[in-house]
């Protein structure tokens, strides 16, 4: 135990609940309560209804949920591929060059995401890479924003990976591609799945850059939540937010099961 004293453990748990409840649990409970409310003029919501959820799972909201899922899935796969490739390539570089590569990949998250959105809008609004007005500019922005997390996760796993496995395979005559595909990547699979889950969750909640780039026919769910709350439909926006959280958690639970099996393997 990090805190051997019983009194100290009680103090730590008390401090945890004092911080967790008002900062994390209470806002989520408020959103959950508002998603069922028709009116909220007292301490608790009144006139509970499921009408907001019917609106949040049909029509425009359902299309926006599908858009968010497709965007997050595509961006996560692109980020995982790019981040893994860069981490594997940088791992063979001298320490100074490796730090430079790490800094380049962290740069998109070191600046506000709206700046990244503006940069992508300027970069891809002219031929030969004309993506403005298409869904691919949104996917590109999300991939750029989350690639840093995939790169850092795989880089950290590579630093802990025992090189003896790859060296043993190479000494037995295995080619570099075979060593990568059959030895290194399977050993990195738990970290890869964790990075994929993190990238997916971050992409599902991305708003700032998306607001600058999304075309009318590719509206992710966070944009719909912002639009609903902006016009005063707070209860409907809360229901849509709960749908977004639920969809994200379900995907993360599925990824967690894959990660557990990969770690056991």
Task: Tell me about this structure.
The chain has 265 residues and is mainly alpha-helical. Helix content is 78%, strand content 0%. The chain contains 11 helices and no strands.
Question: Secondary-structure blueprint of this entry?
Answer:
Layout: H1 6-36, H2 51-56, H3 59-91, H4 95-110, H5 113-123, H6 135-160, H7 164-171, H8 176-205, H9 208-213, H10 221-230, H11 234-264
Helix pairs in contact: 1-11, 3-4, 3-6, 3-8, 4-6, 5-6, 6-8, 7-8, 8-11, 10-11
**Could you give the order of the helices and strands?**
HHHHHHHHHHH
Over the alpha carbons, how many angstroms does the gyration radius reach? 22 Å
DSSP summary: helix tally: 11
SS class: mainly alpha
CATH homologous superfamily heading of the largest domain = MetI-like
Looking at the overall shape, the CATH architecture of the largest domain is Orthogonal Bundle
- Please tally the β strands and state the result: 0
**The CATH topology of the largest domain:** MetI-like fold
The number of distinct structural domains comes to 2
Poorly predicted runs are none
Strand content: under 5%
Through-space gap between termini: 29 Å
Tell me, what is the CATH class of the largest domain? Mainly Alpha
What is the overall pLDDT average?
Answer: 86
Largest sheet properties: none
Q: Can you tell me the overall shape?
A: globular
């Amino acid at each position: 135990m990090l805190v051997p004293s019983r009194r100290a453990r009680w103090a730590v748990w008390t401090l945890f609940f004092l911080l967790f409840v008002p900062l994390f649990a209470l806002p989520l409970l408020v959103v959950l309560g508002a998603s069922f409310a028709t009116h909220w003029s007292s301490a608790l919501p009144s006139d509970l209804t499921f009408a907001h959820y019917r609106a949040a799972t049909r029509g425009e909201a359902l299309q926006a949920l599908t858009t968010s899922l497709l965007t997050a899935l595509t961006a996560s796969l692109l980020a995982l591929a790019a981040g893994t490739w860069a981490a594997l390539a940088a791992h063979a570089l001298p320490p100074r060059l490796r730090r430079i590569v790490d800094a380049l990949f962290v740069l998109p998250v070191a600046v506000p995401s709206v700046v990244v959105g503006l940069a992508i809008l300027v970069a891809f609004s002219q031929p030969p890479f004309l993506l403005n007005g298409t869904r691919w500019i949104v996917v590109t922005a999300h991939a750029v924003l989350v690639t840093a997390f995939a790169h850092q996760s795989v880089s950290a796993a590579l630093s802990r990976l025992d090189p003896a496995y790859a060296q043993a395979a190479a000494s037995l005559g295995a080619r570099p591609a075979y060593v990568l595909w059959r030895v290194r990547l399977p050993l990195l699979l738990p970290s890869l799945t964790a990075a994929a889950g993190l990238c997916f969750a971050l992409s599902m909640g991305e708003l700032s850059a998306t607001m600058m780039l999304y075309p009318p026919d590719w509206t992710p769910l966070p944009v719909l939540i912002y639009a609903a709350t902006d016009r005063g439909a707070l209860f409907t926006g809360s229901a849509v937010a709960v749908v977004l959280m639920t969809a994200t958690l379900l995907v993360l639970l599925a990824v967690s099961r894959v990660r557990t099996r990969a770690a056991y393997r």
